[in-house]
Amino acid sequence: MLKGFKNFLMRGDIITIAVGLVIALAFSTLIKAFTDFVINPVVARLQGGQSVGLGWQLGEEGNDATYLDLGQFISALIYFIIFMAVIYFCVVVPYKHYQSRHGVAVFQEPGPVKTCPACLSEDLPAAASRCLHCTSEQPPTVGAGSARV
Questions:
Q1: Do the beta carbons of residue 103 and residue 111 sit within 8 Å?
Q2: Which residues cross the membrane (predicted)?
């Protein structure tokens, strides 16, 4: 039982995912600090005056619970965009390159699809001979592996 658990943990994809999560958490902390201490002060300065933030007070003055803070939303949006860009360029692109060198295609564009004439499902692979949804026979697609005589 413990040997099976050890084999599960030592699989390459589990280790890759674990390393990716640790890297993502580290980048997340770094980018959160960047948005909190660089972006937020810039957004607050652009609004001018002594305002609490970039937004509107929906209730009583000074009540933080009813303050609609767009500055924090803009900051969170910038955080998300930066975080996803870092993950893409620092994790996904090198992983794709590494896997392509080993002959494995990951994160590739989906292949051509066709529409089922019976149920109108639009996600059938072009080479499919039966529909995934209604199981009706599919006409052969020219150029999808069918040989012409």
A1: no
A2: 12-31, 73-93
